[in-house]
Each structure stands twice: as structure tokens, then as C-alpha cells.
Specification:
By secondary structure, the chain is mostly beta strands. It contains no helices and eleven strands. The protein is globular and about 40 Å long.
Length: 119
């Protein structure tokens, strides 16, 4: 069974940068989409960005410009680089892997990593 393990979260000041990493056990090509989602208290979990098996990427409109998703097929990792962090970026960030036509909720989730933006 595939497992996703996130790392890299923490406390960061506004304007800072952070790099989150999702380690995928097993072949990442078993999934059509591997993405990063986030959930702030009181909010629904939302897509930040995802990478498709052919290498293309999708970003939420709110993530364009400050977030960069990338994958390393040799390390089996999918990273999310975040620049110019804002207070509203504070959330638990989750890695998700899903097949084609499979809704995210029916995919595989990691345990999440907390990102807190605070001065």
C-alpha cells in the first residue's frame, strides 16, 4: 500500500520561504495526480497545486506566483516551494495521490505538515 509522508513544515515569519516535501513509497507513476492541499482551521481542504504523471502542473489561482510544485522521480518526492509567505498561508498542508477520474477524497493522503506564518 502506498504511503505519503510530508515534511518541511514549521513556523516562519511573513515574507519568508518554506519547502515542503512529500515522500512517496512505491512508484509515483501509479498515480495520475500527486498534489498538495491545505486546510486552515474552519476552512475546507483546498487544492494548492498538483503535478500530473506526464509532468504538467496545475495550480490554484491563489497559488500562482508564490508556489512552485516539483517532482523528483529519482527520489520519489513531490515538493512544494512557497515564497513570500503570508499569514493566510497558515494551514496544515497535505499530500494527496490519486488516479485518473478519482476525486481527491478517494485518493491517498499523507498525515499533513503544519505551516504557521507568524511574526
Amino acid at each position: 500500500q502506498v504511503q505519503l509522508v510530508e515534511s518541511g513544515g514549521g513556523l516562519v515569519q511573513p515574507g519568508g520561504s518554506l519547502r515542503l516535501s512529500c515522500a512517496v513509497s512505491g512508484s509515483m507513476f501509479a498515480f495520475r495526480y500527486i498534489g498538495w492541499y491545505r486546510q486552515a482551521p474552519g476552512n475546507q481542504r483546498e487544492l494548492v497545486a498538483e503535478v500530473i504523471s506526464d509532468g504538467r502542473t496545475n495550480y490554484a489561482d491563489s497559488a500562482k506566483g508564490r508556489f512552485t510544485i516539483s517532482r523528483d522521480t529519482t527520489k520519489n518526492t513531490v515538493d512544494l516551494q512557497i515564497h513570500s509567505l503570508k499569514f493566510e498561508d497558515s494551514a496544515v498542508y497535505y499530500c494527496n495521490a490519486r488516479g485518473i477520474r478519482q476525486p481527491p477524497n478517494f485518493g491517498t493522503w499523507g498525515q499533513g505538515t503544519q505551516v504557521t506564518v507568524s511574526s
